[in-house]
Structures are given as structure tokens and as C-alpha cells.
Amino acid sequence: MGMIGAGGAAAMIGEPVLARSTATSAHGAGFNRWASPAAAGFGDIGAVEQMLFPLATTSLMIVRGGKQVWTYGDVTRPSYLASSRKSVLSMLYGGPVSRGEIRLDATLAELGIDDDGGLLPIEKTARVRDILTARSGVYHAAGSPGGVDNGPARGSHKPGTFFLYNNWDFNVAGAIFETCTHQTIFGAFARDLAGPLGMQDFDPSRQRMLGYAPRRSRYLGYHFFLSCRDMAKLGQLMINRGRWNGRQIVPAAWVAESTALHVRGRETGTSGMGYSYYWWLPSEVRKGAAWAGSFAALGNYGQYIVCLPALDLVVVHRRAVTDEFAIARNLGRTAASPAGGEPAMLPIMDAIVATVRS
Q1: What is the pLDDT of residues 135-179, one digit of tens each?
Q2: Whole-prediction pTM
Q3: What number of other Cβ atoms are within 10 A of residue 195's Cβ?
Q4: Rounded-to-5 percentages of helix, strand, coil across the chain
Q5: What are the backbone dihedrals phi and psi of residue 98, each rounded to the nearest 5 degrees, phi first?
Q6: E strands, the chain, where?
Q7: Is the preceding omega at residue 214 within 30 degrees of 0, hence cis?
Q8: How far, in Å, CA of 272 to CA of 267, rounded?
Q9: What is the DSSP letter of 160?
Q10: Which residues does the UniProt record annotate as the domain Beta-lactamase-related (predicted)?
């Protein structure tokens, strides 16, 4: 496959590549608000606030029934999503899959996907659905941090049989999207999600394709920089089964399929959570009724969108890092982590769920 057009997922690596989108920033309405957390069925939210004080949390937003319950910190500040980007891409896949532009059973060979140094014949038999469940069986070096430099030997696992969280898969999923739809990821996001949802803080020029320099793979990471409140709209859209203000934004069938259990928690490693099409499934480790059907976008340093359909609840947690840090990390210029640690998702969510009274 040749280089994808300006700002695309196989763009040349070097200094940060800006997404070349002609879309304008989307400034829409925010969530309506509950009169109080109690009116939304919550008890004392103060325990949650006390829990957040010593953490590196920079913002948090709770939405229930499509209305804002409570916020912490600056929910308007856009910052780096890290791996939560993958769940956003999964949402973008819905329309093209439903229209037949992307076929989940298409193989890398059929799509013309190759990489520097060449893929093995067995690797080229990986299907799009294998890529979307991190079971491609391709252990080529990734074009951005989060690859498998010390992973399994090339060709050691048949595609579709072994889970490995590997940015090669995730970055190639971006290239597949752009090749099959003939649009950039960020352009599609602006048109198909940010615009219809009325995102208030989205800046098209801030989104970036990033990867190692010198390059290790032709496929870069597609990195989003969004605010807490705009991320909450993505979560609410998923809770709504893809519907927003009477309009079907993401096909309902795709919302169901992309959050169904495809990889059991025992296969995913230390987290124990199940995995779907780039959504984590906490119900594998949290068995209460509140967690039934739950799914989450999880990103490094504490970037989370957690959706609990059983409670009609969306929680977004941010631990903002600077753009400069995010760019340096994804160019391979630093492996350091920001000071303050990473606030863990499950303990925070346990505290929030414990306050729900009705």
C-alpha cells in the first residue's frame, strides 16, 4: 500500500503531522444538568471528590440519563487521549461497515496492506475483524510506542487465535479506515461525530498523526486531543445505541457488535477485562448488576470513558498531559511518565457506583 494522502495513517514520519482537515471547529450546546446529584439518584458525592484530591486527576464528569450530574476540575480543556483514541476509531468504523465500504472478513492481502521489510504470508491472512480484536498475529514493529519489540516471534500465531495488545494492529486499523473510505480519520471524526454531537472544544488543527523518527513502520498513530465534556458526548452516544437528537449517528447494530464480548478476560492479560472492537469490557472483573453490559475506552495516564448502560451512566476521567509531552512520547523522544502516577479506573468507578441510590 502506498502512502495515504495528507495527514493520513501512513504519512511520512518526522515532526508532528497536523491533520489537514477543512472542517471548522464545532461549538455546540452542552449537557442539560440535573438540579443536584440527589435528583439524579446519587447519594453523597463528596466521598468521590475526597478520593480524587490526592490523585493526578485533572477533570472528571458524570452524566446520567443524558444529563450532567457532577464535574471535577476543568472539563473544557482538550488534552491527549492516548489509547482511548482506539475506541473513537471503532465508532467511526460503524458507518463504513454498514455501507459495505469496510468488510470485516477482508484480509490484509486483499486490502494491499504490507509494511517495511514485508509481512509474512501467514500475517497477510489476518482479517479486519482480527485487527479490531488485537488478534492479528502480526508482530511487526509498530510505527509508534506501544508495539511488541519483545513480543512473539513473527509467524508464531495464526491470525485470530492469540490476543496481543499491539499498536501495529491499532495503527493499521486507521490505515484500513482511510483506504476503504477515502477520507482521513480526523476529517471523518469532524464530520460524523464532532459536528453532529455539537462538540464544544474540538479543534481540527490540533489532532495529529505521530510516530517514531526514524520510522519503524509506515503506519502512524492517529492521536486525538479532546476535552472531558466532549468525550462524555461520545460515551453518551454509545449509551444511546448510536442515536443523538433523533438522528442515528452510529448504526445501532455496530454499537452492539463493537461492545460485545469477543475476547475473554483470561486472554487479555493482567487487566482481566474482556475486549471487543477496541472497547474494554469491565463486566469480566465486576459482576454486579450495575456493570452488566459495561464497556470502556482506556488510555495511558488516566484517560477513560466508562459506560454503564444498566445505570444509564457515563463517566469520563482525565489526567491531562501537555501536548509537548504527548508529541515527544509518540516520536520516541521520551519514555518517561508524567509525575503523579496514573489514577486507576476501577477504584474510581467503584466509588462512583457505590453512591448510586436509585
Answers
A1: 999 999 999 987 777 789 999 999 999 999 999 999 999 999 999
A2: 0.92
A3: 17
A4: 35, 15, 50
A5: -65, -30
A6: 17-18, 59-64, 67-73, 79-80, 208-210, 221-223, 225-226, 243-244, 247-248, 274-275, 280-281, 295-299, 303-308, 313-318
A7: yes
A8: 8
A9: T
A10: 58-316
Residue 27 has a pLDDT of: 54
In angstroms, rounded to a whole number, what is the distance separating the alpha carbons of residues 305 and 357?
22
Phi, psi (rounded to 5 degrees) for 26 = -100, 120
User: How many angstroms separate the CA atoms of 67 and 7, rounded?
Assistant: 35
Task: Using DSSP, state whether 70 is helix, strand or coil.
Answer: strand
Give the closest residue to 35 by CA, choosing from 67, 58, 60: 67
- Distance between CA atoms of 35 and 47, rounded to whole angstroms? 19
Phi, psi of 256, deg, nearest 5: -65, -50
Instruction: Indicate if the alpha-carbon torsion angle 7, 175, 257, 78 is positive or negative.
Output: negative
Domains of the chain by range and CATH? 37-354 (3.40.710.10)
